[in-house]
Specification:
heterodimer; A: alpha/beta; Rossmann fold; six-stranded mixed sheet; four-stranded antiparallel sheet; 7 helices; 10 strands; B: alpha+beta; six-stranded mixed β-barrel; two-stranded antiparallel sheet; 13 helices
């Protein structure tokens, strides 16, 4: 017995606006992603890649077609059910880090657990473990202003993985970072995918960042222009 | 979870301490005003009641017309000597029956003059009021009944006209009536209503009627029941006697009233109820304004923190959880306003009360009410901004700068 793919798009379309001014952000996309994959998504702006990410992340819903998560159709989900999908299954990493200002690293990491109603002690220990995993042990008391961009993104990654999500959604995770720090972050994400078995879906516009993925999707004008496996093994020096 | 929410709310409030303070100022002022006024009002009422009860519960006041707020008594027929005589003869259990006419007149002695309250009555008045003399004597029979000129003066009048000298035996002119001073009244101080009881000249009723009032009628009668006699019985006896004498048909209302002090106190409290109602209206308006202030600043806060809300929604906060967070923040704000208002109001009341010399009577009911009301203000006016926060679209919120 084979498990259903973790992400399935069946003829998913997304329109914005009405009548003549209708913009077709996604046009009948078919897609399936299996658990454990590391998928890079590229495409020019307006190609639909962000819309696809938003739909996968439960932040947006298709105008037509069906989005299935672990084989379960989500078309009937209301706002609260989509929130619960995000809360229990997905972790988000954004280009702008999106940490809470004037809040310590460990409290930022704890945030998703707070909404799960986890008690303080367990929350704290899980957040500390997550921070250790991203290499920020000893920095838990620092607020985001006191951390470098790379460290902030590590906190964001810790926040995304603290709930043990099935899928990590990364939207331009290295967009605000220099080359060296980008490489470190990508190695971290690669390791999470390889060692923890987290499915990674990452949007980027940089070829060398996309190359970290094992599969590359290219979006053009709302269509899936290409879908190919990447064999190139990234070598790195630490 | 609740603790977390409260902690978050406190952080958001304390981050902008000055703004938070200015926001709740409306609530603070509204609550403080109500607490201060009610507390001072309670103190005054307590003092008046203490004063009234000191006068004794065995004292009855007989006046023409119905007495109480909104009742005019000027139309009603006044009493006469025969009414007083009839009460003295026919009602048992009385210690004193004092007819009373009151006016204001200029009192002159030597070069000094002073405007004072002038009472025409009998020696019974001193009995009914438990009033002693510090110097001299009360009226002799020919003065008391016959109206021969003689005056007893209060301490204030004595001081104004004679300074340190002994006034007994001296002559004063009360509105052109020459009157020898026969006695000086013991010091009584302020009455519950705040007027100086020692600023008084007492003369025989007959003299007052003839030379001051130009009348043969009596405006009121003070009765004092003997110890152990129920005032209710005296009251009903006097009422039926006067009804008969004034020929009031059965079924018609009395055109006079007989009240004891507790009834008068109750009537006075009746006036306070009206005042309290007015006060409540003022408070409601200021709390409404305060509530709108809170709503305004919460809307600003939601806009400012759009991105934060977006993050929270994206990582798994339910609408309900975001709503609760902002609602708790609004309620916390308004409760802080309420508590500050209660403290400020009590402090203000304490100052005013010490200045007026009335007791400090803090009412737990009004304090609890003010607290509950301010919490409710936060709930009502925080709901709309909180709902707006909860219903934000996470994608747009995350994009917000």
């Amino acid at each position: 017995m084979t498990l259903p793919p973790i992400i399935t798009f069946r003829q998913v379309s997304k329109f914005y606006g009405h009548g003549e001014a209708t913009i077709r952000a996604l046009d009948r996309i078919d897609l399936s992603i299996t658990a454990g994959e590391f998928v890079s998504i590229m495409g020019p702006s307006g190609s639909g890649k962000s819309t696809a990410m938003n739909i996968i992340g439960g932040l947006d819903v298709p105008s037509s077609g069906e989005y299935l998560f672990q084989g379960i159709p989500t078309s009937g989900f209301d706002r609260a059910q989509l929130t619960l999908l995000r809360r229990h299954m997905l972790g988000f990493v954004f280009q702008g880090f999106n940490l809470l200002a004037r809040t310590s690293a460990v409290e930022n990491v704890e945030l998703p657990l707070v909404y799960r109603g986890m008690d303080h002690r367990e929350r704290r220990s899980r957040a500390m473990t997550a921070l250790e995993q991203v290499g920020l042990k000893g920095r838990e008391g620092h607020t985001s202003q006191e951390l470098s961009g790379g460290q902030q993104q590590r906190v964001a990654i810790a926040r995304a993985i603290v709930t043990d999500p099935a899928v990590l959604l990364a939207d331009e995770p290295t967009g605000n970072l220099d080359t060296r720090t980008s490489a470190e972050i990508m190695e971290l994400i690669t390791r999470l995918n390889r060692d923890n078995g987290i499915t990674v879906i990452m949007v980027t516009h940089e070829e060398d960042i996309a190359a970290y993925g094992k599969r590359l999707l290219r979006f053009v004008d709302g269509h899936l222009a290409s879908d190919q496996a990447q064999v190139k093994e990234h070598t790195h020096v630490l | 979870m609740f603790f977390e929410t409260a902690k978050l709310a406190w952080r958001a409030i304390s981050r902008n301490m000055l703004r938070s303070f200015l926001t709740v100022l409306g609530v603070v002022i509204g609550v403080a005003a109500v607490i201060a006024m009610v507390t001072v009002g309670n103190g005054t009422t307590a003092k008046v009641q203490a004063e009234l009860s000191r006068l004794g519960t065995n004292t009855l006041f007989v006046r023409p017309g119905q007495w109480g707020p909104g009742r005019a008594s000027s139309e009603a027929k006044r009493f006469n000597d025969k009414d007083v005589l009839a009460i003295q003869e026919q009602v048992t259990g009385l210690r004193a029956v004092a007819p009373l006419n009151r006016g204001t007149a200029t009192v002159i002695a030597g070069g000094a003059n002073h405007s004072s309250s002038v009472i025409g009555t009998t020696n019974d008045y001193l009995i009914a009021q438990d009033w002693d003399l510090s110097l001299g004597r009360s009226f002799l029979a020919n003065e008391d009944r016959g109206g021969q000129a003689a005056c007893m003066i209060g301490e204030t009048v004595r001081k104004e006209l004679f300074g340190a000298a002994n006034p007994v035996g001296q002559s004063i002119r009360v509105s052109n009536v020459a009157c020898p001073v026969v006695g000086v009244l013991a010091v009584k101080g302020q009455s519950g209503m705040g007027d100086d009881q020692d600023d008084t000249v007492i003369m025989p009723l007959k003299l007052h009627q003839r030379r001051i009032g130009g009348t043969t009628t009596i405006s009121s009668i003070i009765l004092s029941a003997q110890d152990g006699v129920a005032t209710t019985k005296v009251q009903s006896d006097v009422e039926s006697l006067l009804r008969e004498r004034r020929r009031i048909a059965i079924g018609r209302e009395d055109d006079f009233s007989v009240n004891d002090m507790s009834q008068i106190a109750a009537a006075m409290t009746g006036t306070t109820v009206l005042l309290t109602g007015l006060l409540g209206a003022v408070a409601a308006v200021s709390l409404l304004v305060g509530g709108i202030g809170i709503m305004n600043i919460m809307l600003v806060s939601v806009t400012e923190r759009t991105r934060e809300i977006g993050i929270r929604l994206a990582i798994g906060a339910l609408e309900r959880q975001v709503l609760t967070q902002f609602l708790v923040e609004a309620v916390m704000l308004s409760i802080f306003g309420g508590i500050s208002g209660i403290i400020a109001g009590l402090a203000l009341a304490y100052g005013v009360v010490s200045f007026l010399g009335v007791p400090f009577v803090a009412s737990p009911t009004i304090i609890l009410l003010a607290f509950a009301f301010s919490a409710m203000i936060g709930m009502v006016f925080g709901y709309f901004p909180a709902r707006r926060a909860a219903q934000l679209n996470p994608i747009e919120a995350l994009r917000h700068e």
